[in-house]
Amino acid sequence: MDINDKITPAEEEQLQIDLTSIPTPDAEADAHAEDASKSEEAEEVIKETLEKIKQTASEEDPHPSGQLNLRTILGGDLLTTQMVRSQIWLFVMIVAFSLVYVAFRYQCQQDMIKIDKLEEKLRDAKFKALSSSSTLTSKSRESHILEILKQNKDSLLHQADQPPYIIEVPEQ
């Protein structure tokens, strides 16, 4: 831009805005002083917060309140380190009983399966014995035996022609 050129009103406003944004040496010193004081305050706040955290942080659990409600149970306040340590044998015993219960139940189920298989075998054996008995009964009938004797002519056995005699023995 030359000196002879005219400045439009829009350009003039832009220059005024740009001039106000340029910091003066006094303003810069004030800004640095403010930043320094803010950073010192921030450091103090951080130190105070760290001290509070150190005071509240401990490895011991706080003692549970005397109130026992759903919130304390679900929140886990009931299971403090001290309570768990004092009841560790109870927890071990509960776990052991649970394992024994599961093992006995499994063994009982296995025995029941074995009993069912043996009952099925027994039922099959009874049916086979019944069918064998039925077959033997039908083959041992008198009519069937007489037919077999007639077919085998070399046998000396034959059907009696006379009825059986009744012999009476007097009692003495």
Describe this structure in words.
This protein is mainly α and 172 residues long. 69% of the residues lie in helices and 0% in strands. The protein contains 6 helices and no strands. It has helices spanning 9-21, 25-56, 70-75, 81-86, 88-139, 142-151. The longest helix is centred in the middle third of the chain and has 52 residues, at 88-139. The radius of gyration is 56 Å and the shape is elongated.
Using brief descriptors, characterize the structure shown:
172 residues, mainly alpha, 6 helices, elongated
- Principal-axes geometry comes out as elongated
Count of DSSP strands: 0
Order of helices and strands: HHHHHH
Structural class: mainly alpha
Task: Give a short account of the largest sheet.
Answer: none
Radius of gyration: 56 Å
Which consecutive residue ranges, at least 5 long each, have pLDDT under 50?
A: none
Instruction: Estimate the mean pLDDT confidence.
Output: 80
Distance between the termini: 171 Å
Helix content: 55-70%
Strand content bin: under 5%
Q: Give the number of helices.
A: 6
